[in-house]
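Fold this complex.
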Amino acid sequence: MSMHRSHILICSGSNCSHRQSRAVRSRLRQAITETGLEREFKVIETGCFGLCQQGPIMVIYPEGVHYCRVQADDIDEIVQTHLQKGRVVTRLLFKSGTEQSVELPKTAFYQKQKRVVLRNVGLIDPENIEESLARDGYQGLAKVLDTLSPEAVIAEVTNSGLQGRGGAGFPAGRKWEFTRKAPGDQKYVVCNADEGEPGTSKDRLILEGDPHTIIEGMAIAGYAVGATKGFIYIRGEYQLSLQRFRQAVAQAKEYGLLGQDILGSGFHFDIEVRSGAGAYVCGEETALLNSLEGKRGEPRYKPPFPANFGLWGKPTLINNVETLANIGPILIHGADWYRSIGSPECPGTKVFTLSGNIANRGLIEVPMGITLREIVEDIGGGIPNGRHFKMAQTGGTSGGCLAVQHLDLPVDIPHLAEVGSSLGSGALLVVDDSHCMVDLARVFLKFFAHESCGQCTPCREGTTLLKRLVDKIASGSGTAADIKAMRRLSTTMQMTSLCGLGQTVPTPVLTMLAYFNDEFMEHLDGGACATGVCRAAVKGVV
Amino acid sequence: MGQSMKSMQELEAIRERARKAMQVRQNQEGGPVISVAMGTCGIAKGARDVMMALVDEAAKRGLDSVVVTQSGCAGYCEHEPMIKVQLPHQDAVYYGSLDERKARDVVARHLVQGEIANDYVLQLPGGEPLA
Ligand SMILES: Cc1cc2nc3c(=O)[nH]c(=O)nc-3n(C[C@H](O)[C@H](O)[C@H](O)COP(=O)(O)O)c2cc1C
Ligand code: FES
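Structure:
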């Protein structure tokens, strides 16, 4: 058994990797060898700590001291001061505003979070299955195979109130039940890890930090719906996720936690890893299925739904990464425990990628029902550079744009729906008062016009028309009739688009028109853009 | 090394082993802690060997929950290497002028048997043990 007195964890999440965490790690290993401390200290790569903006992050146990923004040049001091003499290197501790902290879990950033999905991320070595096992990985699967019928598993998931975390928020248990009841001898489980939403990287960081929890979730789902084969569709750019997941699948097979007769239960389940090619629409479940089949990634008409007619026409359960990450804990601790977290109408937690004009950008997990203000001010650390809060867009580019009056709104599926927004994919973009909403609308619509797959007319034409209208308004030559046209077009797209892409493009448009109406109005009939952003940006566009 | 598990019992056994290997990272608040003074003076007099002996002895005796950590110089350079043993709900005990053998002895007597190893307890100039 390893005798290491101390474990040093370094974040190898993709955000920290961009900030040279690999160089930090190799320098640390080298320095430890040079000073003859290798029997004492073990260096481990781990997943995202959430405070990516202050990365690369390093934590030294048993003391639990966290260092931020560590670079290779800092290693000599860390070794000489901390590793050799047990003294803390104060200048590398976490600092935000007036707050300084030795242990990240004691900071305001962490205190209001609740980690269910991310329970192991930043704590285990994701490339070592035994560390997952030590933290109750596969315990849910073992319990299910040992003691529960598929129907009982579905009942537990249904009672937990878990809703899909991929965007649509469909009750997970019901989807499982539809798939179980669908006639067919071959069924499939598909994990949607396409994550094409701009500003979102939660699924990536979950996969990088704790791949085994997804394997476990998929295997439990397979048992429940009657599938022996699973596919995971991981976005092609996510090289580290792909590599870690493939490695995790291989380890799970080696340990007998995937494959034939898992844990002697007679249940077989296997997972195949596929990589996507980076089209936004391929995250839409039926487009994803087409892509998995080797066809063009275009959405299908629904119904029939994938639960009845999915991959190669077989009943298929398709769930998001984060949805599946909740399954293990729900089966270990039970539906009542899960319901004790979050709000009564919307149990559990939600993982967000916090981005934009906010002090602590990164990855957070909060109980459903927390207010927007708590996320922005307490966890996010507020708006930096002396600016003020202007807008928060929940749910990614296709989510609603909320304003100051929504800061005390509980963030969960029903409350966001009330104000015309959604949780979507868990992107949370915070925008300060230096930005113009008309200009932002242009940015969003440019994205959609580019990503529309072109299959259905309302979405293909609608996204382009909307973009032209906003360009016109930004240029100062818009009129009240153009705003009216935007509203009408949006309603048409909501009602007639083939898939969720075209149906949700109007969400940001309509919420902007509702909550930032004055700002649109002031651009009309030659009016000026108060922030001065538009005139500069649209020169030559219209 | 991996092994293909075929039963719940095997899974439980591996889980137990894996938990022990990760113990250092669990929240140990309130558990037994030994801290070794790691000032320049301590290191020069062999504090690092003392620490490795403590870690090794604790591991050999299956004391998984004991945390061995290090602290700065305590200002009693002539008594180095010195350590502090803090058991839950008890006063801290300081030991001084240790070597590897004495360190192992402290683990055996204080942590396993629960008796203070009086002969190594650090004496202050006035004769009072430092506590
Ligand atoms: C344009 C578009 C893109 C989508 N992208 C994703 C995605 O990247 N990841 C995802 O899980 N769901 C995405 N969805 C939602 C999926 O269609 C589907 O609802 C989801 O994978 C179901 O899983 P869940 O019930 O666990 O949320 C997208 C939907 C649309 C319309
Ligand atoms: S990727 Fe390192 S803290 Fe997020």
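Residues A 164-168, 170, 192, 194-197, 280-281, 283-285, 318-320, 323, 425, 499-501 surround flavin mononucleotide (ligand 1) (CB under 6 Å).
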